[in-house]
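A quick aside before the break. I want you to see a complete sequence-to-structure record at least once, exactly as it would be stored in a machine-readable document. Don't worry about memorizing anything.
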Amino acid sequence: MSQAIGNGRAVFITGATGGIGTATTRALAERGYRVYAGVRGDAPHLAEIRGVEQIHIDVTEPKSVAEATAEVTRLQGGRGLHAVVNNAGIIIQGPLELVPAEDLRRQFAVNVFGPAEVIRAFAPLLREGRGRLINISAPTARLAMPFAAPISASKAALDALSDALRIELGAQGVAVVTVVPGAVETPIFAKAEAAAMEALADADPARLALYRSRIEAMGAAMAKMRQSKPETVADTIVKAVGATRPKARYLANSDVRPALLVSRLPVRLRDRVVVGLLGLRKAEAAGPALGS
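That is the input. The structure line, written in tokens, reads:
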């Protein structure tokens, strides 16, 4: 029965090594799709899944993307692709003033320029298969968070690409879909936290002192946030892959809709709500004054 759902149609997904990527790869394979799992390194856990072919790709390297495209094209033998899922992504966080320039560039290299390179390379395969492009966004694309300016800006840019491509590629029979996960139990958040702490350790102590109380308050608020399993996002992606007429946007978790509702508030009110939700009001009162 699961085989009949996918019917052997092929899907290429980036960032398949862990978290949402692995859960989606497994879910698609179990439903009968042939999955080309984009990985940067070895992923022995994916080799155990029937119907999965690992494709080495670094989305930040155009040559690597071209080689991956050529390999998938060869394996498909003119059949095209049913879907491409731009899932690879990283999170860079911290006060923008203190985020190293190379980290900010890497944020956009992985989350924006990488997906754009994949789209350019794989568009012919999607046209052949009359498939769909699925970009993985985030609530911060519409509701930017303090101390998360890099990830917020990168996802906003990816959303803008999706909105434009929905018309550009839609006219060629390729549907463009955005999937928005909420807070999810994946290693990406722990990696982001560790990287942020490392960057802040090298920051100017005087500048860091201006932000410390607010960073701590936000950290405490985020620690209380309920997280969903990666499989909840994977199920939403599978739904978008399998839909006869996919929607333009899918909200994967219950915490996404409230965030989007807050994003539509008048700007000053929205800022006050965000400050309150993140516990920043008391931190602002307790924090050092500018120039102290």
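Two observations worth writing down. The mean pLDDT is 90. The longest strand covers residues 34-39. We'll return to this after the break.
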